[in-house]
């Protein structure tokens, strides 16, 4: 987890103490259980004395519950209430459920919807049935750079915001970024041509998936959906010819139901992200 960026750190309206407190809450992952100050400090890159003061304050406010026997903490109901309130207000989560369930039944894959959390996508809706090998659930985080959902989200951003995210990814991954960048660039071309992004074994060797962004005209999002399964079930050929087009159709139907902006034609998409044009210039800027 990265510390406060240079840009916000110099913003006089930005409250660093609040940011750090939220970083402590963000350090808790769905399957963690208990975390101690030392573990939280390692995840947030904050000094341990600072973490100790923050966990004390969050405990007094009711957002953390101390477990004295282990000298650790767990999220308290007040913290969980924030998450449930956010989920309740995400109309796309509720409206998309019957669409996700239908696609899950038709394809045998797990279908999810998520939004960005820094350099990750976080699931806030999931339909997976008995899909083997896909153990993610609401609250799970997946990386933007190597997943179909993350890549679809990235290429749905405006040019300036996408460029900033790409620079953050390059800084975060360091020497690993060169290889990841190739997949990101391919995803941009695939999105421009077909409307969906692909990740075939690039996040996990045995997981293949497609991703499609959801764009709304109310100023929220973008969000992104994925449909994935074990590689033996979703071959790359099937991703391109069957699963990808199905997911595009599903997301466009959800957009229409939510009153989202009409999707661009393939001609418009090609003009916006034409290989050798804007796509190439964006990629060149983050090498």
Notes on the protein architecture:
The protein has 287 residues and is α+β, with helices and mostly antiparallel strands. Helices cover 49% and strands 16% of the residues. The chain has a 6-stranded antiparallel β-sheet, sandwiched between helices. The longest helix is centred in the C-terminal third of the chain and has 23 residues. It is globular, with a radius of gyration of 20 Å. About 6% of the residues have low confidence.
Choose one word for the global shape. Answer: globular
Number of helices: 12
> Spans of 5+ residues with little confidence (pLDDT < 50)?
262-277
End-to-end separation in angstroms reads 23 Å
User: How many strands, which pairing sense, and closed or not: the largest β-sheet?
Assistant: 6 strands, antiparallel
Mean pLDDT: 88
What is the number of strand segments?
8
Q: In which order are the strands of the major sheet placed?
A: 5-4-3-8-7-6
Helix and strand composition category: alpha+beta
Portion of residues in beta strands equals 15-25%
Order of helices and strands: HHHHEEHHEEEHHHEEEHHH
Helix content: 40-55%
Q: Over the alpha carbons, how many angstroms does the gyration radius reach?
A: 20 Å
